[in-house]
Write a structure and sequence with these properties.
Keywords: Cytoplasm, Metal-binding, NAD, Transferase, Zinc
CATH class of the largest domain: Alpha Beta
Strand order of the largest sheet: 3-2-1-7-8-9
CATH architecture of the largest domain: 3-Layer(aba) Sandwich
Order of helices and strands: HEHHHHEHEEEHEHEEEH
CATH superfamily of the largest domain: TPP-binding domain
CATH topology of the largest domain: Rossmann fold
Largest sheet: 6 strands, parallel
Number of strands: 9
Enzyme class: transferase
Helix content: 25-40%
Protein name: NAD-dependent protein deacetylase
Structural class: alpha/beta
Strand content: 15-25%
Distance between the termini: 25 Å
Number of domains: 2
Organism: Longicatena caecimuris
Radius of gyration: 19 Å
Subcellular location: Cytoplasm
Amino acid sequence: MYDKLKRVIEENKHIVFFGGAGVSTESNIPDFRSQSGIYSKKTYPYPAETMISHDFFYEHTEAFYDFYFHEMVYPNAQPNPAHLALAKLEALGKLDAVITQNIDGLHQKAGSKKVLELHGSIHRNRCQSCHSFFTLEDMLKQKDGIPKCPNCHHTIKPEVVLYGESLDMQVMEEAVTAIANADVMIIGGTSLVVYPAAGLLRYFRGKTLVLLNKEVTAMDDQADIVIHDPIGEVLQEVVLHNTKLVD
């Protein structure tokens, strides 16, 4: 399957990548649903899914931030071979877009330019009152409490999509367009159970569907290439170590 994936990447120029939490686990950022994932945390008074909801943010803001800064923000994380391989494919003119459910910003850190963040980013934060913008670095200076705007002293909220909130329709539309125009779609590091993001797959009409995930998914029988190895290992072999892919 590795050789088949190599050929697909070598022979096509309109590739789209759709990724989830498994893309960043090799950067030591936990996923959500595995045995060691964020949803398995037992040290908080509420379930993790409750603590990252819209209502919880407004009703228990301090508890939200305690969970958020300890479990969802990894400022020292670095891109792994998966991120680097995708950035290389974009630089070679082969990858049209990265569509990600992750909020960590590692694709951009690796050098990717066209990144569609379905669930927002920890690197974008705004005051709920005056709408001033703040970076992650600004937020980390106040991580022991509720981050407050220095201009108007109201609460700052990260621009991440919490449970109970709608996705950004412009980002969704761009993702649909990218997928619809792709010849190859590579899905990586996602269980494909989170909607509406997982529903984007129905817009793919291209030639080759590739699925890279350590666990079996409901889409395995619909993919042309299925590899159940760590995504960083796979993309390192088929992209970074592929001498036929040259600038």
